[in-house]
């Protein structure tokens, strides 16, 4: 339960990164920095990489997170994971190590000419004018790490693991699961540069249903389509916006109410790589496949 509440804190910080929490950027950045830093997430680093994701959603060349591979780019071990045991191992690794590996090594992100790390102010993810804020993010994470060290000395390792460590693992698991399921579905296309445009990319996402956790997570789980179309709409108006855009988008609005524990297993099974449809002249539009 504490991990779910921490995830709600993380969702609010994400809103602040879009300046979708208040009318004042200084207030959004202050609240976002405090909440994300408390959860060992570098606020400004993620703010900038996440904006790149929103600017390039669905692009195979420029998107920032959960960029699928073409069949020809799969590693040799992919076929060995294409079975129930392999998928279980993949889920286990993804939900425990996926978030820190993304921050540290840009796992599931686009290829850069060198290591892209969210803690590196001079990494290829960031521009020169953003580097000072990356240092601020790093200083915040180091300060919380030091505070946790002092807590261990005062309360003991077991206490800190119980009160903070295990809930943080729950947060990391939910972040990866929510993001993965919002951008991975058999009905979602991905685009090469010849076919990609911003609107196509923004519609290449799907809303999900997490039951009672929808409200706990400030509805970020089921308003993702609206969020990509209008990222500055606050979460407290996003359901209202979603209800309005559904009839406008019609068949282009994507929602899947499959229970998420079933959905993540299905998507790992069916969404292994992307390829264009056979005989399709629009070779820049690619769809998920699983035949190896």
UniProtKB/TrEMBL annotation:
GO terms for biological process: lipid metabolic process. Keywords: Lipid metabolism, Membrane, Oxidoreductase, Transmembrane, Transmembrane helix. One of its GO terms (cellular component) is membrane. InterPro entries: FA_desaturase_dom, Fatty_acid_desaturase. It is found in: Membrane. It comes from the Eukaryota. Its main location: membrane. GO terms for molecular function: oxidoreductase activity. The keyword Transmembrane helix applies. CDD domains: Delta12-FADS-like (cd03507). The chain crosses the membrane at residues 134-153, 159-181. PANTHER family: OMEGA-6 FATTY ACID DESATURASE, CHLOROPLASTIC (PTHR32100). Belongs to the fatty acid desaturase type 1 family. This is Fatty acid desaturase domain-containing protein. It comes from Gossypium tomentosum. The lineage of its organism: Eukaryota, Viridiplantae, Streptophyta, Embryophyta, Tracheophyta.
């Amino acid at each position: 339960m504490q991990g779910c509440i921490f995830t709600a804190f993380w969702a609010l910080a994400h809103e602040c990164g879009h300046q979708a929490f208040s009318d004042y950027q200084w207030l959004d950045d202050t609240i976002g920095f405090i909440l994300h830093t408390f959860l060992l997430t570098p606020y400004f680093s993620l703010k900038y990489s996440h904006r790149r994701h929103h600017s390039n959603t669905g692009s195979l060349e420029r998107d920032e997170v959960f960029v699928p591979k073409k069949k020809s780019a799969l590693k040799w071990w992919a076929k060995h994971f294409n079975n129930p045991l392999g998928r279980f191992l993949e889920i286990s690794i993804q939900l425990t190590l996926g978030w820190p590996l993304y921050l540290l090594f840009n796992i599931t992100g686009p290829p850069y000419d060198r290591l892209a790390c969210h803690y590196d102010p001079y990494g290829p993810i960031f521009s020169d004018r953003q580097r000072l804020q990356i240092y601020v993010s790093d200083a915040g994470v180091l300060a919380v790490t030091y505070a946790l060290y002092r807590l261990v000395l005062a309360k003991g390792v077991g206490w800190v693991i119980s009160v903070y460590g295990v809930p943080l693992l729950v947060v990391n698991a939910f972040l990866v699961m929510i993001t993965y399921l919002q951008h991975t579905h058999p009905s979602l296309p991905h685009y090469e540069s010849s076919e990609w445009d911003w609107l196509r990319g923004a519609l290449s996402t799907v809303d999900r249903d997490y039951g009672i956790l929808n409200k706990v997570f400030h509805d970020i789980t089921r308003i993702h389509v609206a969020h990509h179309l209008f990222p500055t709409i606050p979460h407290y108006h996003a359901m209202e916006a979603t209800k309005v855009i559904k009839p406008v988008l019609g068949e282009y609005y994507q929602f899947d109410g499959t229970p998420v524990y079933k959905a993540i297993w299905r998507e790992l099974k069916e969404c292994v790589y992307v390829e264009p449809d056979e005989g399709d002249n629009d070779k820049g539009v690619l769809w998920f496949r699983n035949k190896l």
